[in-house]
């Protein structure tokens, strides 16, 4: 229960965080102030840190209603009975959820040098490129998760298209039983090598996860020209694209609605937009955090404002809102099913239909909350022994009452879709659904200033490493010296040795130089930022 500390603040809940300076584990509070949600922690050595956790207290309270704890894993890589979270990740017994999407870093080389990026070979001082056997081992480790094996992977980097054996890597993923293979890329090679889209599509890539920070050179200097050519080449091969904007306040946050408009104009190839509010990785003074910090509600409010209300904050739901669907399928099949069970503050999403010139977000014609409650009731009936045939038949006749047919897009049947996917497990209709709609999602990865261990424990986006661990995203990247850098350096070679072995310079990989932001963003003389004075923002 919330309690007041003074007239201006209300504590919502207690949690645990880390000191951004010394990484000491600290008690923290999530509190409401000024219509926003904040996280506060006090370090005995480095003082108090306050940072915005969510830009809207009202939206936070709405999302919080869908909080859900996923199931613990039966296959653990950490044997400690009492792990020290987040220092003992990999996965441990404290983790609540399975791997919904796995990341496999196939290289830390990159062909760009973006000013906000935290991770590329030249900066690291070594080249990390796991072998094909190591990649196969990582996939097998993911597939061995129980009770729910991982079935989706994202090949990432660096820039994964720099791997000459990328097609073989994709084939390994498919051979080992992964249903979904996603390619995370800046699109440069998809643009400049016209046959690459065909080759990765034939090897088994389902979706291209394309960096797309804006529509202009000013907001997207890294690939504003190449992205369009990459999309065209994917269109020619029937390869779906998800646009991935890293949203940075004062840099490109004014283009959030423009990006959706672009996506809607290219629905034949663009399947979704997945905004990633920037993670402020690195040591950064409060003034710069305030300058760049943007949260999920801030992006939603910008979309609502700039779309004139065609899409609103109320059209979005937190990711664990999908749990009643999973529970119903599980009750029907009698076995553990795939769950999207991250912390409710990690992400929000909706679907948008384009009905001629009219935009129709899914919640405008479907009673989402009523439908979810109905799903919970049916799942409970099945768990208590009710016949699945009787429940299925009743659902077929009752689901329609949650749909406003006058507002619904023409030619789309929600009851049929739910019955086919949930009751009959026919997912062809779900694929057709994705072709007719635009998915719009937001995923805000953490940094040391807004770090909440409750989110880490429920993370469902994980990294697989060659040493056999499976590590939550916000442990792997936010404290790189504990996980990303340490694990990759053990399997890497120094840059000089790589260049001698291969006969190629890392500089030769660069497609474009000068993709850094304003000098005042990239560098500072503030002594608090360390010897290099470098500020790093990241996905």
Explain the overall architecture:
- α4 (166-175) links the parallel β8 and β9.
- α3 (132-143) packs parallel to α4, α11 (323-333) packs parallel to α12 (368-383) and α13 (388-398) packs antiparallel against α14 (414-423).
- Strands 6, 8, 9, 10, 11, 12, 13, 14, 15, 16, 17, 18 and 19 form a 13-stranded mixed sheet that branches. Strands 1-2-3-4-5 form a 5-stranded antiparallel sheet.
- It is α/β, with parallel strands linked by helices and 539 residues long.
- The longest helix has 16 residues, at 368-383.
- The chain starts with a strand and ends in a 17-residue tail after the last helix.
- Helices cover 32% and strands 20% of the residues.
- It has a domain at 101-443: TIM Barrel.
Which residue ranges are poorly predicted, with pLDDT under 50 across at least 5 consecutive positions? 518-535
Strand runs, count: 20
Radius of gyration: 23 Å
Number of helices: 21
Fill in the CATH topology of the domain at 101-443.
Answer: TIM Barrel
Shape: globular
Rounded to the nearest angstrom, the distance between the terminal CA atoms is: 33 Å
Spell out the CATH superfamily of the domain at 101-443. Aldolase class I
Average pLDDT over all residues: 90
Question: What's the multimeric state?
Answer: single chain
Named CATH architecture of the domain at 101-443: Alpha-Beta Barrel
Q: What is the name of the CATH class of the domain at 101-443? A: Alpha Beta
Major pleated sheet: 13 strands, mixed
Strand content: 15-25%
Helix fraction? 25-40%
Structural class: alpha/beta
């Amino acid at each position: 229960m919330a309690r007041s500390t003074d007239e201006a603040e209300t504590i919502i809940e207690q949690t645990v965080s880390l000191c951004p300076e010394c990484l000491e584990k600290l008690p923290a509070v999530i509190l409401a102030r000024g219509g926003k949600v904040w996280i506060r922690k006090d370090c005995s050595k480095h003082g108090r840190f306050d940072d915005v956790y969510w830009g809207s207290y009202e939206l936070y309270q709405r999302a919080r209603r869908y909080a859900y704890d996923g199931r613990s894993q039966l296959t653990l890589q950490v044997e400690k009975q009492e792990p020290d979270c987040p220092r003992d990740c990999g996965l441990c017994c404290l983790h609540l959820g399975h791997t919904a999407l796995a990341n496999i870093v196939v290289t830390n080389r990159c062909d760009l040098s973006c000013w906000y990026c935290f991770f590329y070979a030249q900066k690291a001082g070594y080249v990390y490129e796991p072998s094909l056997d190591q990649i196969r081992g990582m996939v097998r480790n993911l597939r061995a998760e129980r009770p729910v094996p991982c079935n989706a992977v994202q090949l990432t980097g660096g820039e994964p298209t720099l791997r000459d054996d990328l097609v073989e890597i994709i084939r390994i993923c498919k051979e080992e039983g992964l249903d979904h293979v996603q390619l995370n890329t800046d699109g440069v090679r998809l643009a400049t090598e016209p046959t690459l889209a065909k080759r990765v599509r034939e090897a088994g890539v389902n979706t291209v996860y394309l960096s797309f920070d804006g529509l202009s050179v000013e907001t997207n200097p890294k690939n504003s020209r190449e992205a369009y050519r990459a999309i065209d080449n994917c269109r020619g091969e029937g390869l779906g694209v998800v646009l991935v904007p890293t949203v940075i306040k004062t840099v490109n946050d004014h283009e959030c609605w423009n990006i959706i408009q672009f996506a809607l104009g290219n629905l034949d190839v663009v399947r979704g937009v997945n905004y990633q509010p920037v993670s402020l990785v690195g040591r950064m003074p409060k003034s710069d955090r305030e300058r760049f910090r943007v949260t999920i509600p801030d992006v939603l409010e910008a979309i609502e404002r700039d779309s004139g209300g065609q899409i609103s904050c109320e059209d979005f739901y937190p990711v664990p809102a999908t749990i009643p669907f999973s529970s119903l399928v599980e009750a029907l099949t009698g076995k553990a099913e795939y769950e999207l069970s991250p912390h409710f503050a990690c992400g929000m999403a909706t679907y948008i239909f384009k009905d001629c010139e009219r935009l129709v977000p899914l919640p405008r014609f479907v009673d989402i909350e009523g439908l979810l409650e109905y799903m919970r009731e049916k799942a409970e009936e099945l768990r208590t022994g009710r016949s699945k045939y009787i429940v299925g038949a009743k659902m077929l006749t009752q689901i329609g009452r949650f749909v406003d047919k006058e507002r619904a897009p023409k030619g789309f049947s929600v009851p049929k879709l739910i019955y086919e996917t949930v009751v009959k497990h026919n997912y062809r209709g779900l694929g057709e659904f994705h072709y007719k709609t635009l998915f719009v999602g937001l995923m805000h990865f953490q940094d040391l200033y807004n770090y909440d261990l409750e989110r880490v424990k429920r993370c469902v986006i994980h990294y697989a490493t060659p040493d056999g661990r499976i590590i939550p995203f916000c442990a792997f990247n936010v404290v790189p010296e504990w996980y990303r850098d340490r694990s990759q350096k053990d399997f890497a070679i120094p840059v000089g040795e790589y260049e001698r072995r291969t006969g190629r310079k890392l500089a030769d990989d660069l497609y474009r130089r000068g993709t850094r932001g304003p000098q005042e963003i990239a560098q500072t003389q503030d002594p608090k930022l360390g010897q290099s004075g470098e500020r790093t923002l990241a996905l």
